[in-house]
Amino acid sequence: MKIGDLFTKPINRPINGVIKADQKDAESVWQELDEYVVTKQLTEYFRRFFDAYLAAADNPNDPVLAARMGVWVSGFFGSGKSHFIKILSYLLENLEATNPATGEKKRAAAFFDEHKIKDSMLLADIQRAVRGSADVVLFNIDAKADSKDERDVILQVFLRVFNEKLGFSADAPHIAHMERYLVEKGAYDAFRAAFAESNGSTWEAERDAVDFLRDDVVRALAVALKQSEESAGQWFDRSRDEYRINIESFAKLVNAYLETRPAGHRIIFLVDEVGQFIGDNTKLMLNLQTITEQLGTATQGRAWVIVTSQEDIDAALGEANKAKSQDFSKIQGRFHTRLSLASSNTDEVIGERLLAKREGAHDALRDTFEKSGDIINNQLAFVGNSVNLRGYKDAAEFVSVYPYAPYQFTLLQKIFESIRKVGATGKHLSRGERSLLDAFQSATVRNMDRDVGLLIPLYDFYPSIESFIDTVAKRSIDEAPNNGALEAFDVLLLKALFLIRYIADIVKPNVDNLATLCVDRIDTDKLALKRQIQESLGRLEQQRLVSRNGDLWFFLTNEERDVAREIGNVEVSSSEKARLLCELLFDDILQGSTRIRHRDTKGDYDVNRLLDGAPYKNASHELTVEVVSPLGDDWDALNDARAVLRSSEGNGRALIRLAEGERFDIELTLYRQIEKYIDSPKASNATPSLRNILINRKDENRERRARLREQLATMMLQGDFYALGQRIELKASNPGSLLDELGNYLITNTYTKLGYLKHRNADPIAEIKAVLLADDTAQRKLALGGEEGNPLALVELREFLQLKASNTRVILDEVVNRFTGIPWGWKPDWEVVLLVARLFMAGEIKLMMDSADLEPKAAIEPLTKSARFKHVSILKRKVADAASIKRARELHRDLFAEMPPEAEDGLVAATRERLAALQADLKGYTHVAATPHHPGKAVIDSAIAAIGKQLGVADSYEFIDAFVKAKDDWLDLSDDIHDVISFYKTQTPTWRRLLEALERFEPNREALDKDVKAAVALSNLEGIRDNPNPWGAVSQIEPLITTVDTVNEALAQSKREHALLSIDAKIAEVEKALDAAQASDGLRNRALLKLQELKTKVAGLTSIPMIFYSQERAGDALDAAMTMIESATPKAAPTTAAEKGSTTAATKTSGPVVAPKPTKPVRAADFSPKTYLETEADIDAYLAKLKAELLAVIQSGGRARLQ
Description:
Blueprint lengths: L25 H9 L5 H19 L4 H4 L3 E6 L5 H13 L2 E3 L6 E3 L12 H11 L3 E7 H4 L8 H13 L7 H12 L3 H12 L3 H4 L7 H12 L3 H14 L4 H13 L6 E7 L1 H5 L3 H18 L3 E7 L3 H5 L7 H9 L3 E5 L1 H11 L5 H21 L15 H7 L5 H15 L5 H4 L5 H11 L15 H5 L4 H9 L8 H12 L11 H8 L7 H17 L3 E4 L2 E4 L2 H11 L5 H16 L5 E3 L6 E8 L2 E2 L7 E6 L11 H8 L5 E5 L6 H15 L2 H4 L3 H30 L2 E4 L2 E3 L6 H16 L13 H9 L4 H6 L8 H14 L5 E2 H9 L8 H13 L3 E5 L2 E2 L2 H8 L8 E5 L5 H15 L7 H26 L7 H15 L4 H10 L1 H35 L3 H5 L2 H15 L10 H40 L4 H19 L4 H25 L8 H14 L8 E4 L13 H20 L3 E4 L1
Parallel strand pairs: 1-6, 1-7, 4-5, 5-6, 11-13, 13-14, 21-22
Antiparallel strand pairs: 2-3, 8-9, 10-11, 11-12, 14-15, 15-16, 17-20, 18-19, 18-20
């Protein structure tokens, strides 16, 4: 049985595979209605449309339903959306179709019976919808538009098709406006008759050339409107320029028309391919939105707008317009009813319209699938695809779609979309000139004479679109048959590669998948087919017709071929490939790691990285990992024995011999060729098309690099491994783990004394600081004990320092480098420094910097900064002999009355401890000794300095040596400071009383010196005070103070009694004046206060000068009191006789108020003309002057007080 014999209808019959809005001949209309397949999905879409349509018709006054008059029909290329809206137009208009073969007439709704639509409710709704009246306007917007560049092009198209529907001029809106005006005035028929009479032809036939028929039009207008020809001419001439229309006025125009029609009449605009027409033009999007909204509002839902568009916005707009997708979604949002046709709809339609089988074919095909179904589906299996391209579900599907595979419906749709999107086709395909139905029919017709058992391969679809592919894009395919280096199958394979060129994300173009696409029989030997394809690809690659990216193969256009040829001619040196391989291996795969962390010790070890014997970047470390690659000269010759020998060279060497990699050198070279070509001057000045090719090549290279990384990682894991002259077996899941395993083996077996450092600190720098800050010998010694002290490591360090640092200094940096190197490998560096710090604090070594010994605290900074290691020197400490230790112990006993330990360290520690305590005590007395009249400051200062100097000797050997040499000085100092310490501990209270007594006796010194006992005692006290070493005389202080106190008190008593009598007399004077002035209690208290205070003070004084001074101040206090009384006593005023009487009476009762006279102090000594009075005349002169002064005071109304 032949393929052509399988189908119920002739496979080669004319089928209108592409539905066009303007194709309305009788044959097309009949076939479109008769063969239209209503799938389950389409049934649902018809239901949703007619629900919305009838809901609006049943509720004409509902504004919500009135606004829902926009319908958006979307779907991928070939999904049947154009056919769907054309069928809708037939139904809404209930078009009468005629079968040109039989002359049978049939209404559109009649085609949709219970056989085509199983849903009886939907059938009833369709019948109800077609009973209403409607004007249907179906058009392809791109075909009707003059230019997309016009701002209101969509409005102009809507106006054009509306005018055309009403019988008015379509191409000249101002003429249509004139016609509409004539109709409104009832003058249109008269106008047409007058035009025909004047022109000789009908108006409809000639109106498109109206600009050439001005006179005929003006004459007809004058007749129809009963105007003069001059007026009609002026109106006609202005009509084109003055005609204006906007969206709002258009909507009113449509509504005005609907008002002339019966109630419920509608007008439906069906706009095909609006999505592609709008493209990325935001203004066109907004115009469509506004037109839809205005029509709905103005007509109250009686005007409907139904549009189609690609569902895949990117496919419609192109990759460059992704940013506009949101605006496009806004447009879709304006359409309440949205119907999205899926590809499954296409499968069903093609199956029923084209591939429906005869009964006999059903049985034969079903038997074939039942026998070989698994084999057939295995033939159709794909590898590594992101989209599920499936085989046959069951025998029924096999019968339904044979001779095609189910995946081909989805795949061909994707192919058409991708080729159009990248611009490899002309406008015909992009405008839908080719449909999936047509492609499947063409491929079937091409194979109709072949036997059943055939499966149509992908390349048989190529002729369906060949005539629509741009010449440049298909030139290489056209030229391939004439290429003597190619075979016939190579051309077919090239066509298949072209078809899937831009859908690599759907079908990976590897050999397995190409074999699936090229299977042409259900029993094809697929293994043989794969071999045939591989050989074919090799020939195509040699001719630069295809390119390879890993295991994927791609069709090359002519321009891509030129680029591939130029890339192939780019020179790449072996050093460039080696550098690229190093980048891939060391930087990408191993992530630039130059260190390996030892698993047990957590130490980080730097490694040299070598590739084929050449170092990569820094190679100054002890450990080396070398990779030998197939690119190297030694790879082939490097057998097991030679590799073992090579790994034993030097110290700490490991070797990785990579496994062989298929096409590795070729891929590596091609990567570098593409990289260099992209960076070339030609590429920088590339044309847009070349730039796109380079971008693709750059993306391809990105994938190639990732693939090279993956392949290189596999080559590494499958390689051979050697270290330190041994072949080793390693298993790892990734290169990083492999390097870790190899590195740990290398570290463990290179650093044989690594285990000596058993204990490692989490923070060694902090531990170094803690060790250096240890404040006692016990803590310092503790640093060397136990496992934490790392005894084995300390032994190694001691032995080295004993050998190297006994007589000469060793630099710390040298020590660190030694013990971090082979065979120790103690990491991090700080662990070695910590060992040094412990020996230093234990007194075994001393540290020096800038030719001076380092103290522990001063050592913190240079020992915790690696940059300072070169400035720190280490010297092994000397050990004191037995005789020196004996003398030192005896001196310690003499000084501190105790015997210290015999060991050198214990002796030094005990001596340091006692000296430090003594120094602390002495420092406590320093501030007291520094005050005046305190003894021993010189001794204290001298002792503190001597002790400080001794304690400043860090080295124990030098400490003992200095201590013993200064024995006499220490013994003298001991005697001196013994008395000082005893004095300040027990005798300072007595000393303070001495100083206080001398200060207290000083005012009476003159009087006390007149007393023999007192004078002697004072002299002795002052002698003790001024003695620099008064230690033995302190016991005499108390009796001497008592002697002076007795005499002092007796002298002060007589002076005190005399002063108190004088003050009492003055108090009596004041009291007398207060009585005379009849003073108040307050005045009395104030006037007497100062005298009474002076009296109290004098009663407690022992200082004779102070007694005299206080007695003198009593006179001033007396004057002040009298002045106070005088000021407080009221002055007497002149009085009348009556007042005198009353005053007399008052006086008799209370007595007179007498204010004290003003007092003036008179110092008698001031009036003596001489210091000494020697004669009677001198006395007379003195007394005369004194008398004169006293009389003057009295005569002035005052009174005198002698001083």
